């Protein structure tokens, strides 16, 4: 075939691809293949989900439908740990550790004093079984029908379960469930989505879910986003995995492997700064506190994850409310952890002890684990926080409800603000769809290499 004929065929193929509704532009590439730019409507998160984004969400729904159906981690009706496995060994995470994980999440939720809770992504009901007796009403949603059916069959008092995705807070079937449990048109005073954001495609979808959750609650309510993978620690996580897999490898090799694994990670991770950005333009003020995970065992769930509590509505402290005193950990760390905390928290009024190195992540003077801080507080009305900018630093606030609002100052994060898996999915999935399109539109024609690029055409999307 002559170069002229090849050029004509490539141009014709580009025209066929450009006509596809999921493609904004298509053009010949220097290597003889074709570059395509996804159409914005195909990847949109709002106001309507694009077909590629829907496919990403459906992929995760199918995964969890299968995981819950197999029930390989099902210990009891109220302790189904299916899918909870260690990244390094693939073995189930220890039952005692997962019970600790559940208890810490329940403590965080109940500390907000909710009465009517909507949980988005309730899974097997690890939280539902423990929260519903302490609430006036609980409604749970999940994308896996098998999970919804099992929880419904359990007959838990003052509960309802419905199949719905995290973004469907205003879906009629969700509203019907809330009407049944809370009362007609009564809003939840807490919306919770815990250990589900890793399945989200990107920050645009996260923003849509957050906006829906915030719109669902009245002033004075909370939205809790739990068990978040921190983007600033993703490389640390994969470095630890690669070192465990190949203890004899040199540092440069481990770093290269970890960097590649982090770049191709198929789960969403983000820093608190990404949530601050998502809150811009909200019609009501929202205050955000950032909390550390304080389980006893050193696993990825303790090291690399955190929680956020969003406090919705105007916040006007009484005129005589004392200001929060800030004191650095370095000024108190000479003695043991318990004694140092007592000295730091001693005095009148609320206090934040800041700049505490996390011993799970930092080899620094005065480093303490989140668990050691929780144990040292020993029932005190206090909370262990995560530094909103640097995930290797902790803080303690007393009393717990005076946690400083991370939204008042939006610090630049240490490390990337987010890792979004959706562009990776689009680069893999869109060429598959387009090759099928070409086979139908031009049978027998040679199929060129198709590469997804960003809107400038200068590189991968």
Automatic annotation (TrEMBL):
CDD domains: AdoMet_MTases (cd02440). It comes from the Bacteria. One of its GO terms (biological process) is methylation. Keywords: Methyltransferase, Transferase. The keyword Transcription regulation does not apply. Pfam families: Methyltransf_23 (PF13489). InterPro entries: SAM-dependent_MTases_sf. The keyword DNA-binding does not apply. Gene3D superfamilies: Vaccinia Virus protein VP39. GO terms for molecular function: methyltransferase activity. This is Methyltransferase family protein. It comes from Streptomyces capillispiralis. The lineage of its organism: Bacteria, Bacillati, Actinomycetota, Actinomycetes, Kitasatosporales.
